[in-house]
Amino acid sequence: QVQLVESGGGLVQPGGSLTLSCVGSASNFNPFFMGWYRQAPGKERELVAKIFTISENTDYADSVKGRFFISFTSKRITEKSVALQMNNLKPEDTAVYYCGANYAVRDYWGQGTQVTVSS
């Protein structure tokens, strides 16, 4: 069973920074990619950024390019982590952010963490 646990959300002023962290665990956990998605009220969940764990190639939503940066760490065979450094945050970045992982041809999700950008 895959578990994804997020941390790091909160309230930040426009122009501020925040870092989200996600730790994924399972026996022999080797995801194809891990990433961050977000869902604002009344909107569909959208990709923010993802990273492929072998090549470490990345993919970003156009709205966050140059402001957000994703990184991946393989700590041990049973645990992998992904972080999202968010800079120059804007009110439109306000959403629930979910960690996701693709493993064994299935998608897994964390419980979500709220990010609110407001003065």
Number of helices: 0
Largest sheet: 7 strands, mixed
Distance between the termini: 40 Å
What is the helix content? under 10%
As a whole number of angstroms, the C-alpha radius of gyration is 14 Å
What string, H for helix and E for strand, traces the elements in order? EEEEEEEEEEE
List how many beta strands DSSP finds. Answer: 11
- Low-pLDDT sequence parts: none
Structure description:
With 119 residues, the chain is mainly beta. The protein contains no helices and eleven strands. Helix content is 0%, strand content 57%. Strands 2, 4, 5, 6, 9, 10 and 11 form a seven-stranded mixed β-sheet that branches. Strands 1-3-8-7 form a four-stranded antiparallel β-sheet, with no helix packed on it. The N and C termini lie far apart (40 Å).
Which labels suit this protein?
mainly beta, seven-stranded mixed beta sheet, four-stranded antiparallel beta sheet, globular
